[in-house]
Specification:
homodimer, mainly alpha, Arc Repressor Mutant, subunit A, Tetracycline Repressor, domain 2, 2 domains, DNA-binding, DNA-binding (chains A, B)
Chain lengths: ~240, ~240
DNA sequence: CACATTGGGTCAACCCTGTTGACGTAAGGC
DNA sequence: GCCTTACGTCAACAGGGTTGACCCAATGTG
């Protein structure tokens, strides 16, 4: 196996073009590459070219490409929730959490698409779960309900965000083809076979834009309707 | 451009090994391949080998690999929705659609994990969309609302199902590790740093079972609350 | 200051992938 | 029977990840 990655890194050699490699620089350059030239631009060879080093030099820093992707994912999670402070309005706070997660994913779609379905168990995730459940407790839900409903909420948010990220992570041709599908294919259907689609034909092009916020709002409406306490509380209640 | 795929297929030549190719056989073999050896086992060359034909023969049936993936996705949808007839209770019908989709994904977890986020723009998908929007129209929603809300509903269902499928598609070790880790890590936390998690500590193990139905129920509650026509789930009244 | 050690950048090579153009054969309509 | 052409086959290309070997220079040691 490749134990090309050492734990303690002491010696640094500049590459042929004079750049001093580091794990941080590589992750940063990878994110820039994705941001500028699309998700499909991330490959070992292209990353090497962008860094000004031989592609295989990266294997001195990461076991394989998956290792690199996970390192990128680490940073995404941290960036998304950085500086978030839950407010007194639990609905609004949950909503902001949802939007932050999605924004973090969409900022780096390919890495997010690859890592979205994994349980990180890191501090940022644990912190987020604690915050979210705390918000539902402050809303008056009992413990079991708070845990269960938070799971339903965050799973939906994460799944949705992953879907959006996966779409952004598609190669441009496929992405545009999927986008066009709502305009083209769904516009020219047999009215007898597909009456409902024919009826809403004019509304379909808008569907390509996604439904994240609508879904979050629906969920929050349902949660608010189920909440025992009617007002968004001042949040100071201590857990016994 | 590759117009290698004809619309009307008349002539059939057996391959060198005697197999008679067809779009149906190819999709079926691809599903088997993915189910047995994982999503990464699906390549043109391997599929050709499994079928007993030259790999490039597949380009006579599918535009490119993406086209094949979309065909696989549509087959999964078609199988899941086979025999489904929407009833008079639109909430219950949407609920059954959701459960069917999820069951279809879980029947082919690895294929679903690969194809879940795509717009197949094929028959089975179009049929399902027509059915779903028709249900919301029958509930009294206006056209734009019906289209928008159906998208939010089905996106949530598909995303959730994809998450469940992705989890099932994980290697057993990783899957069980994730499952266990949830209990272990979240049971031994600093009460001061994570008060909410500590409060609901005993409820957490149940969270590992997933939240699909809870999320669907929340969504349907919100939809029912927004519906102009008041007759929802329990009533047996027929829609005009 | 000199030396031995070794981290790590580089190169060549391997095997994988999707895809295309050319080729020829056999299947079907007439 | 012929003629057309659908379609299975083959060779080739560009690009991917990954590895083993090479060797220079940065570093700890004396």
């Amino acid at each position: 196996m490749s134990s090309r990655v050492p734990q303690d890194r002491r010696r640094r050699r500049p590459t042929r073009s004079g750049v001093l490699l580091s794990e941080d620089l590589i992750v940063q350059t990878a994110l820039r590459l994705i941001g500028e030239h699309g998700p499909e631009a991330l490959s070992v060879r292209r990353l090497g070219a962008a860094l000004g080093c031989d592609p295989t030099a990266l294997y001195r820093y990461f076991h394989d490409t998956d290792d690199l992707v996970l390192a990128i994912a680490d940073r995404i999670i941290g960036d998304a929730m950085a500086g978030f402070v839950p407010g007194e309005d639990w609905v609004a706070s949950l909503r902001e959490m949802a939007l932050r997660v999605r924004a973090g994913y969409l900022a780096h779609p390919r890495a997010a698409a690859m890592a979205a379905h994994r349980v990180t168990r890191r501090r940022s995730e644990i912190q987020a779960v604690d915050t979210g459940i705390g918000l539902l407790l402050s809303a008056g839900f009992e413990r079991a309900a708070a845990a269960r409903l938070y799971l339903a909420f965050i799973d939906t948010v994460l799944s949705h965000a992953a879907t959006d990220a996966a779409f952004q992570a598609l190669p441009r041709q496929q992405r545009e083809a999927d986008h066009r599908a709502w305009r083209d294919v769904y516009q020219d259907l047999d009215p007898v076979a597909y009456p409902a689609l024919t009826a809403v034909r004019r509304e379909l092009p808008g569907m390509a834009d996604g439904s994240f916020e609508e879904a979050v709002d629906l969920l929050l409406e349902a949660l608010a309707a189920r909440a025992p306490a009617r007002r968004a509380s001042t949040g100071g209640s201590s857990p016994g």
